[in-house]
Design goal:
Pyridoxamine 5'-phosphate oxidase; alpha+beta; Pnp Oxidase, Chain A; single chain; Split_barrel_FMN-bd; Pyridox_Oxase_N
């Protein structure tokens, strides 16, 4: 069973906001991590990480995860949360890093361009969340 994002959810998710990523097999209490992410055309969420991170090992044990995205301070309060199984893929990871670098940073800034170039030289894994449950609130 898959859950779907509304047009309002997508409007929030398509902005360059940090998502807070949590894995089911992680420590107790959960320890969310801020991540860059994007929503795909088919309604999945994807992010990237290095292949040797604790989150990769935790997802290998239990592939469930969640991502929460909230509107920034100064806007009306709203958030979207997606929970579901994940897949980890090496294909497309470098391209995702490149797209998200351009989304989150001003890559015309030489410092940021160099930082992104250094990131692109590293090894990455693409984590894809396939939402089974989507929750939201707006105040």
């Amino acid at each position: 069973m898959s859950a779907h994002f509304t047009a309002e959810d997508r409007e929030l998710l398509e902005r360059p906001l940090h998502g807070f990523f949590t894995v089911a097999a992680g420590p107790t209490p959960p320890q969310p991590r801020p991540v860059w992410f994007e929503v795909t055309r088919d309604g999945a969420l994807q992010l990237f990480t290095a292949p040797n991170t604790p989150k990769v090992r935790q997802l290998e044990r239990d592939g469930r995860a969640s991502l929460v995205v909230a509107a920034p301070v100064g806007e009306r309060e709203r958030w979207v949360s997606a929970t579901g199984p994940t897949t980890m893929e090496r294909d497309g990871a470098r391209e995702l890093v490149e797209r998200l670098g351009a989304r989150y940073w001003d890559t015309t800034d030489p410092v940021r361009a160099n930082e992104l170039a250094a990131m692109l030289a590293e090894d990455w894994v693409r984590i894809v969340i396939h939402p089974e449950k989507v929750s939201r609130a707006a105040i």
